[in-house]
Write a structure and sequence with these properties.
Strand order of the largest sheet: 7-8-9-10-17-15-14-11-18
Number of strands: 18
Structural class: mainly beta
Distance between the termini: 53 Å
Largest sheet: 9 strands, mixed
Order of helices and strands: HEEHHEEEEEEEEEEHEEEEEE
Length: 276
Amino acid sequence: MQNINRILFSLLLGFSTVSYGQYNTYIESSDEIIFNKIEEQNFETEVDLDQYVLRWDDEKKEDYTKMYMNLTPEIKAIVYLYPWGETNFIYTFYLDKKSNDYTPVLFTNYSSSQIEARQKDITLTQNRCCGESVVCGKLTIHFNEEGISLIENYGVVDSYNNVKHFEVPDYSPYYSTVKWGIIQNEGYNLRSYPSMEKHQDEDFNSFFNANGEYTIAKIKKNTRVKILDTVDLEDRTWLYVEVNPENFSEDNVSAYLYNSDQNIRAWISANFVTIE
């Protein structure tokens, strides 16, 4: 089992969107070997698929969750949510009812999941074990007849690791209003917490080289940031934003992200931001 765990843990390193057969998939590039091996299997029935997915450990067979999404009259998604040690894994196959073909489209790890059946989406939260990161990943995965696409893909400093964390009202990619802003100063501080205060968290300093501040990165001038929320604290307005790490002039956070396309959500002061 340890060898299998090491193989599966490699999935944390990143993803790439590729076309696999007739569908778009979302996998880490090094995992195409795994997908190729799955594709070589001859799944004549759904029972064959069950046996393949659950072959690793008989003790886990009673713990898995299986669900379906009817994407078109001809295409059905079959989703397996599968516990494995300190994490969980999600397998997804598309069944073409006309040809009776089972095609793999998704395989990754997660810590918790939330299903939006109406939108045909699944949101996965990812945490690394054993204190390896104070950042958690969030993926909102959309299923349609063309395959897999991402509605959201970001990391955020996580209160799960006992780091001071400011909870914002629920943001929804479907219903919430989004604004945009332009950074006016070079090296603008991106903070995990909306505060100018100093802190005494040695682990936080170790992770982010923060020197007692909540700064996790510095943003380049003229960067366009996505504004998700605002809050007034310490006699100033703070903006909760999403930023692509490519726009950082100093970066102490992206090394802890879960895939190469992931953005960061955190806080900036509104003092030197022009709202569009």
